[in-house]
Amino acid sequence: MVATHSHPSRREASENHIVLGLLDAVARDPAVTQRTVAMELGIALGLANAYLRRCVRKGLIKVSDAPARRYAYYLTPQGLAEKSRLTASYLSHSFAFFREARAQCADLMRSAAARAHRRLALIGSGELSEIARLVAREHPVEIAGTVAASRDQAALAADLAGLGTVDAAIVTAIADPDEAFEAALRLLGPDRVYAPALLRLRHPAGQPANPKPRR
After folding, report:
1. What are phi and psi of 143, to 5 degrees?
2. Domain containing residue 46
3. Residues sharing a CB contact under 8 Å with residue 17, sequence separation 6 or more, in sequence order
4. How many domains does the chain have?
5. Which of 64, 91, 153, 193 is deepest in the core (most CB within 10 A)?
6. Interval 101-111: pLDDT, tens
7. pTM of the entire predicted model
8. Rounded Cα distance, 172 and 1, in Å
């Protein structure tokens, strides 16, 4: 029988992305803080803490006391094995993801340019935001910067204000994009928020989150 390899669901891929990022961070620096992990992955601090506790319960990470009321984190043998497995899974699907994300980001850039949305902010760091930056070079748009994905509208507003004037934003958060998308909609309005179709986000009116340019 020939083995088949199915692509992970969006939820599973998001969870794997966070766990792999967390395991990578601990492997690089046992003294890494939860805040640093959250910033690197573009997720909320509480979510980083929840995933860390989950990894500890599963026996992937061991925690020990460190000086100055800090903690040190270590990968267990099981954690090392899981890191290798997740890395292999990521590499096996990365090309298909890149091709799909690149095509969809290109569609968004064309839509944004047609609507005179030239200066764009990216909401959510990671692979998708890096692809969006690459694609933007091929279109008459400018990426003003990338801000952390947040469900907090005030925090998102402050981060976007730090970029100066922006015409619109593209949600590029892979982990929990729904909350970042909803916060962006409340802040900017539906006509100024875009998202690749692969995130499967929809506007409140039920339309896809990648509006077509007006004729």
Report:
1. -90, 110
2. 10-90
3. 41, 90, 126, 127, 174, 175
4. 2
5. 193
6. 999 999 999 99
7. 0.58
8. 39
Asked whether 88 and 112 are in contact (CB, 8 A), the reply is no
83 and 148 in a single domain? The answer is: no
- Token pair of 102 as six digits: 């690149």
Contact 156, 147 (CB under 8 A): yes
Among 92, 98, 136, residue whose Cα is nearest residue 117: 136
pLDDT per position as a tens digit, 5-17: 455 566 777 788 8
Q: What is the 3-state secondary structure (H, E, C) of 143-205?
A: EEEEECCCCCHHHHHHHHHCCCCCCEEEECCCCCHHHHHHHHHHHHCHHHEECCHHHCCECCC
**Closest CA relative to residue 38, chosen from 158, 154, 126, 106:** 126
d(CA 27, CA 197): 33
